[in-house]
Amino acid sequence: MTNRLVAGCVRLARKLLVLWQCLIASAAVGLMTFYGVAFQVHLPIISFLYLLLVVAVAALFGFWQASMTSILAVGCLDYYFTPPIFTFNVNDPQDFVALGAFEVTALVIGRLSARELRKAREAAVYRAGLEQLYELSRNALLLDLRLPPGPQLTVLIQRIFTLRAVALFDLNLGRQDRAGDWREWESDLARECYLRGTGEDDPPTQTAQRVLRSGHGAVGALAVRGVLSPLAIDGLAALAAIAMERCQAYEKEERAETAVEREHLRGAVLDALAHEIKTPLTAVQTASAGLMELGGLTAPQSELASLIDDGAARLNELCTRLLKAARLEPKPAALKTADVMIGDVFSEVMRDAANENGDPRIQIAPEAGALSVCADRGLLAMILAQFIDNARKYSTPGTPIGIAAREGRAETLISVHNFGPVIPIEDRERIFERFYRSPSLKDSIAGTGIGLSVVRKAAEAHRGHVWVISDEREGTTFFLSLPNGPDQSKPGRKP
């Protein structure tokens, strides 16, 4: 009801304005006629003056007002200046020629004037839109990047462009923010625009929708209601997309910095913890070794002392891994690389495993013993020991554990295979993160979630790569790839 009333008032105001302009033009014709009669102006001169008046009315007011002026001017010209004067010569062809000339002039001038006025209005709208876009770009730089961009942008856009309503959908946060007067059924207008993938305009309601796109694809959608040119709407959508992408970039950068700081802290904690544990472990190992050297122990006592010594050795190995993990971060440690025979490293690892409790299930492929690789012997032994230890813990009892190695053109591939629980796809990358353990196995098998993270850091220090494949029928295989040759400048890759 209110909108119809406003529209009716606008139409009435326009009609009154036209009427007022017609009265002004009529008064000008009357005034010109009065002075022409008073000063006895000749017919050619007064005709030219009437023509100038028609041109002026057409340029100032428009064609219809100029047409009315033309009719009045021809009537006055015929009655007051064309002999016999003070008489209307209805059939005089000069009147029709004059009227035609005036009408053509009014039409041409009116069209030219209307076109120039339209261009002037468009230029003014374009200039105002550019000024508003510039103001928005300046204010967008002052957004608080720690807060969601949606609430800030909607209020900013509505204020700068004096819009009735604004809605913004943020894909990154999965939220829609609104400002202004939206109807209940329009609550998800921006979200629907994003899901639809295309923008649209609704002139009757003065509503425009645009998908916000950046260099990496769509980042959301924008819906606005108000008087706004299509060019300004497109520019507004581009600026909103840039502002949202900037907030997302800041968020990613902040997460990355937080992750780096967290890793630094974890490395420091691991280093301190390993050093603190090694001191009492040394005392325990010395005491247990001393008890066994003294002799005189009963069989149960000797067995208990041996268990203490084996447990202390196991804890000492774990502390060594923790120290190596801490030293591999935040940057790779200086490697002591040399040509290492893989078979010798396998034998060393197997000898240590046999000293602990032995495992006849472990089978080494014959071709593995003849290969060599340029690596840090200690770190390589630690990687293989961790792979073998994982295979022993997680494999099905009685099933074999296979160790193989083969040399390619650019890299050497080492693998450890076993049959056991399948590692879910979503965990095959995460198990190499520190302290992460697969939810399906962490409650059934003891562990710390540290070993594989150390393995990945050691492989990356060699410019190598580690990964796992797991299948119920084929089993689980852990892979280590190391680049061939002494120059390890190129990162390893999967074959």
Please tell me about this protein's structure:
With 495 residues, the protein is α+β, with helices and mostly antiparallel strands. It has four domains: 2-130, no CATH class; 146-255, GAF domain (Beta-Lactamase, 2-Layer Sandwich), CATH 3.30.450; 258-327; 337-483, Histidine kinase-like ATPase, C-terminal domain (Heat Shock Protein 90). Helices cover 57% and strands 15% of the residues. The protein contains eleven helices and twelve strands. It has helices at residues 2-38, 43-60, 63-81, 93-140, 149-161, 189-196, 230-294, 299-327, 342-356, 377-394, 451-461; strands spanning 165-170, 175-180, 200-202, 207-214, 217-225, 337-341, 362-364, 372-376, 401-407, 411-418, 465-471, 475-483. It has a five-stranded antiparallel beta sheet with strand order 2-1-5-4-3, with helices on both faces. A five-stranded mixed beta sheet has the order 7-9-10-12-11, with helices on one face. α2 packs antiparallel against α3 and α2 runs parallel beside α4 (93-140).
